[in-house]
Amino acid sequence: MTRKNTKFGSFYLVIVFLVLYAPILFLMAYSFNSGETMNHFEGVTLDHYSALFSDSRLLGIMIDTVILAVISATIATIIGTLGALVIYYLKNERTRRVALNLNNVLLVSPDVIIGASLLILFTMVGFQLGFFSVLLSHIAFNIPIVVLMVLPQLTEMNQSLIVAARDLGANSRQILSRIILPIITPGILSGFFMAFTYSLDDFAVTFFVTGNGFSTLSVEIFSRARRGVSLEINALSTLIFFVSLALVLGNFFLQKKRHHKANRMIVGGSLQ
Question: pLDDT per residue over 59-102, tens digit each?
Fold first, then answer.
């Protein structure tokens, strides 16, 4: 690649990131605006953050949303990891491809279709809409994400480790707990964080399956925005952005730490 192409690529990336992050920075800046609208920046204040922490309804919805995201991401991570293991160890290549394609179809399906189909299902079986209907829905659309995060770790796994473990007398349970799971842990953690993020900001599916008495942040912000955007929402969005950034950085440093630890083990083994 020539220097000219490299400069063009860097310039292109800068433009892309500006387009993506400029609205977020604009929103964050106006969360400190002393005015009541985003038309003019009148001064710096923390009044909107004070109003946010005084809004008991919004804080309650935020706590419910985080609890929902943690539970759904945890359950989806467990089921998705088991699903990835099942797909990986399917002996029939055609069956494996069919299972993987079915998983990918759920990833590319529009959220509106998924939400409408889940609403029809809950209505047909007489399941009451509320927290548990939203929880089941979030688990459903998070499982394919976890499978997609874990499966590449399995395909990159060195099979000689498993063969060696079997030769040394390890049973299937020991191989799973001491070899396979530690190797695919980065994929499991990535799947969990992705599932948590998707659950935290999902609107389309949640809008269909939520019931009276329960709401999530995305649905609540949408209903409030229809009455006029309040800068209290800007303050909330700013806090969510920094929490999401902290999760991403935490996952990055955790993966980096595991990578360095693995390299030290490899170097130590080679020196011995």
Answer: 888 889 989 999 999 999 999 999 999 988 888 888 888 888 88
Looking at domain 55-227, what is its CATH homologous superfamily? MetI-like (1.10.3720.10)
The torsion of the CA quartet 245, 248, 252, 254, rounded to 10 degrees, works out to 110
Residue 213 φ/ψ region, left for φ over 0, alpha for ψ in the -120 to 50 degree band, beta for the rest:
left
Cα distance between residue 156 and residue 187, in whole Å:
11
Distance CA 31, CA 126 (A): 43
Question: Counting Cβ atoms within 10 Å, is residue 242 exposed (0-12), middle (13-18) or buried (19+)?
Answer: exposed
pTM of the entire structure? 0.80
Cα–Cα distance for residue pair 258/264, rounded to 1 Å:
10
Contact between 147 and 87 under an 8 Å Cβ cutoff? The reply is yes
Token representation of residue 121: 């299902």
Tens digit of each residue's pLDDT (9 = 90 or more) over 175-210: 888 888 888 888 898 899 889 988 988 888 999 998
Q: Which amino acid is located at 199 in the chain?
A: S
Q: Can you point out the beta strands (E) in the chain?
A: none
Q: Which residues of 102-137 are buried (b: 16+ CB within 10 A; e: fewer)?
A: ebeeeeeeebeebbeebbeebeeeeeebebebbbbb
